[in-house]
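Page 47, continued from p. 46.
Same chain as before, 270 aa.
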Amino acid sequence: MDAITNLRGLDKIIVPIRLTSSSKIKFQCYPGVPCFKLCCSGLFLPLTPYDIIKIRDKLRLTTDEFLILYTEPFILPKSGLPIVRLKMRENEEKTCPFLSEGGCTIYEVRPLACRYYPLGFGMFRNRDEGKNEDIYYLIKEGFCQGIDSGEEMTVEEYRISQGIPELEEPIKEWGEIIMRKESFGPMEVSEKSLQLFFMVSSNPERFRAFVFESKFLDMFEVPEETIEEIKKDDLKLLQFGFKWLKTVLFGDKLVKRKKESPSVKKIKPF
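Result:
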């Protein structure tokens, strides 16, 4: 695919062509390429809930420790929902905190956004067909010499080569929550709803404490098998949390409420 303009230096464009999983692209990145590591500075790099778990475990930190040391809160512009992004170093280049002379020090657990580069990814609701559809697009930056070089491959082949599907599939429902909120357009959202979304999205330890140390299990019907799973499995806890968020934020009936007592304050859906 040809660039729509000649790029130089730090110029950056998004090629305005929608790509599908079968679209063909060329890209390669390795230590010998002259621009190696230049894409690892000045980033606004969002972290998915699964990214947080994988990187936290690699670094042998608690979630709180990881969030304090390496992340900062960030409001998604279209949805207004709070997530976390990677905090860059306080140097002139604003480099990634995990960048070394030899490259990425957490490469095997690098974030989903890093794996996708130079592709951008989005999701939208096809109302005519009643299903969600993934969309892809190409990002071209002036310094990058890896684009349009190497062997031709499909978008899906590239995704598989980067280990994307196994990291993306467990958080599909999280992406759906963001997409649904974006579809509502500008609207006021209660502080409580935002806090709940942020807790589930960023801190499984705090969400687990919320489930087991509050009145949560008095309010919601949770099967015993699920209770045992989410006690020790952070990924199962995340996926349960996404279904619970859909229940309390959108009114979906994925986690059934118990008969309410007068003392329980119901959360207002979006």
